[in-house]
Amino acid sequence: MKRWARVAFPNLFTLGSIYCGVASILYSIDGFNGTAGDPARAAWLIIAASLLDAIDGKVARFSHGTSRFGVELDSLADVISFGVAPAILLYMLKPFGHWTWVPAFFFLICGTVRLARFNVLTNRRLAGLGEGRGFEKEDFLGLPIPVAAISIASYILFCWDRWEEVHLAGPFMFLVGLLSVLMVSTVPYQTLPKLAFDSVRSVLKLIVFLAAVTAVCIDPQLMSFPIVLLYVLFGVFVWLVHLVREEEEVAVPIEE
Questions:
Q1: Has residue 51 got a pLDDT over 80?
Q2: Residue 63: partners with Cβ closer than 8 Å, 6 or more residues away
Q3: Which end of the chain, N or C, is less packed with Cβ atoms under 10 Å?
């Protein structure tokens, strides 16, 4: 019973993420009261699902309730909340006209492939550690699908708060395509900072994270999208810097 409780408790947060994802889809289409869709509320529900998704992993590691079942359930929830829900929200808004289904479908496909790869890597780690053993995540391989979904949702919130419609359809379409490609790429993205003061880097990461959270709390509609976009672009920037450095090291002749 104790083992079952450890595994079941974090999965309750995962089920909550599924609920938010399904609710987002309903609000995107018709809402719960049969009226027109509510894009702003649908976007907020995607963000709420991401918070629950972040919590379930922390709870699983803290309670040593990590299991393959939890990994699979979490990925199924992610497909709904961060794959299907943003795709439906995009399609219903139709910011790109009749061709909106193309980037929406591409986003969903890339997100699903990214989750499948993540599951394979995670199951290998669990096989080495044993189920129930918690482990700290390393840097993400590719952009995490919750971050990609939050990027879309936060931009819609940004536009809806000011104009009640999506502006700059061309750049937004490019952003959706970029997010899709980054999810299946090998660009590394850092995990959330831990409460640790063992190095200057960890302290700086924690300060930046707390500053970002404070800004979002002060004005979520205005600050959410710029901060998430900075995270996305910073990962690409760091990756490009590493590529340039590696090429320079290879190009430098070895002195005998």
A1: yes
A2: 6, 9, 10, 134
A3: C
| Separation between Cα atoms, residue 145 and residue 67, nearest integer Å | 21
Q: What is the CATH number of the domain that holds 158?
A: 1.20.120.1760
Q: Are 40 and 156 in contact (CB under 8 A)?
A: yes
Is 159 contained in some domain? yes
User: Cα dist. 202→40, 118, 197 in Å?
Assistant: 35, 25, 6
- Asked if the structure places residue 8 within a domain, the reply is yes
**Mean pLDDT value of segment 252-256:** 49
Token pair 């070895």 is found at 254
User: Using CA atoms, how far apart are residues 153 and 45, in angstroms rounded to an integer?
Assistant: 9
Number of separate helices (H) and strands (E) present in the chain: 9, 2
Q: Which of 31, 36, 42, 50 is nearest to 228 (CA)?
A: 50
DSSP for 178-227 reads HHHHHHTS--EEPPPPPS--SSHHHHHHHHHHHHHHHHHHH-HHHHHHHH
Distance (Å, whole) CA 10 – CA 121: 20
Torsion angles phi and psi, residue 141, rounded to 5: -95, 100
Q: Is residue 200 part of a domain?
A: no
Owning domain of residue 49: 2-189
Question: Is residue 245 in a domain?
Answer: no
- How far is residue 175's CA from residue 18's CA, in Å, rounded to a whole number? 25
Cα distance between residue 122 and residue 176, in whole Å: 26
Which pLDDT does position 122 carry in this prediction?
76
